[in-house]
Every structure is written in structure tokens, then in C-alpha cells.
Amino acid sequence: MLLCEVRCSCGYSVSLRPLFFDGMALREKGSQHRFVDWVCPHCGAGSRFNVAEVPEREFTSATDSYEIAVFHAFLRCAVKGCHAHATVHTLAENEHPRLPIENWQVTARCYEGHPVRVP
Q1: DSSP letter string, the chain
Q2: Chain-wide mean pLDDT for the chain?
Q3: Whole-angstrom distance, CA of residue 87 vs CA of residue 13
Q4: Cβ(81)–Cβ(114) below 8 Å
Q5: Which of 68, 9, 66 is nearest to 40 (CA)?
Q6: pTM, rounded to two decimals
Q7: Which of 25, 44, 49, 115 has the highest Cβ tally under 10 A?
Q8: Domain boundaries, the chain
Q9: Which residues does residue 3 pair with via DSSP β-bridges, in sequence order?
Q10: What's residue 63's pLDDT?
Q11: Torsion angle defined by CA atoms of residues 26, 31, 33 and 34, in that order, rounded to the nearest 10 degrees
Q12: β-strands 13-16, 2-7: how paired?
């Protein structure tokens, strides 16, 4: 099975199905690159990565039923009057993020390119 490996600078990594990115990848206004905003469930570091640059590897031990629960946070823009938002993803546990949102160091930007607020 082909999986994509997302790695944080802290050394934590997670393998996700390529189809996972199809439903999550966005484009910022004026950009042609598809990206995903991700928060490390271990250290809380936020990062944006280009979907085309995520390394893919063949895993022989993975099964077709390989699934990982993911939490999707919709964060509002920090700029007054801007109604855009950013979607940030991380691993989930019991339908909540593994690492509480208040511990995230989010670098995500809304569709217009502005910073977002973390609740």
C-alpha cells in the first residue's frame, strides 16, 4: 500500500493515505500549489506543506483497511472584516485533537493570506 509520510521537525512522523490529501488540500489566493496545514500531535508545531512534495513510500505491512482518525479545525481569520478561514488538521483521539488546541503553534493563513486566530 502506498502511504505519504508527514514528518515534523521534532522527529514525529505519521503515514497517511494519499487520498487523505485529496479532500484536505487547498490553494491560497493567487497560488497554484495545493497545500495542507498540519499540526504535529506530539509537539504542537504547525506547518504548511505542498502536497506534491510529501514523500510517498510503499508499506508492505499496511492493509487496505488502514485508517487514521484526523481532527479538522476551522480557524477564523485574525483580520477584522475578513470572513475567510483556514482549515488545520492533526491526529484525533475520541473525536478530539490528540494535543489540545491551546497548545498549538499555528502558522496557517486564511484564503486571503492573513494569519488566523487560535481559540
Answers
A1: -EEEEEE-TTS-EEEE-HHHHHHH-B--TT----EEEEE-TTT-BEEEEEGGGS-EEE-SS--TT----EEEEEEEBSSTT---EEEEEEEEETTEESS-GGG-B---B-TTS-BB---
A2: 84
A3: 20
A4: no
A5: 9
A6: 0.81
A7: 44
A8: 2-103
A9: 57
A10: 55
A11: 0
A12: antiparallel
Among 26, 28, 2, CA closest to 15: 2
* 116, 48 Cβ separation under 8 angstroms: no
Question: Which residue is associated with the grid cell 499540526?
Answer: 39
Please give the Cα distance from 57 to 8 (Å, whole number).
17
Query: What is the reported pLDDT for 48?
Result: 86
**Residue 40: all three cell numbers together:** 504535529
Contact, 105 vs 88, CB < 8 A? no
**Cell for 23?**
479532500
In sign, the C-alpha dihedral spanning 17, 11, 103, 53 is: negative
What is the reported pLDDT for 43? 96
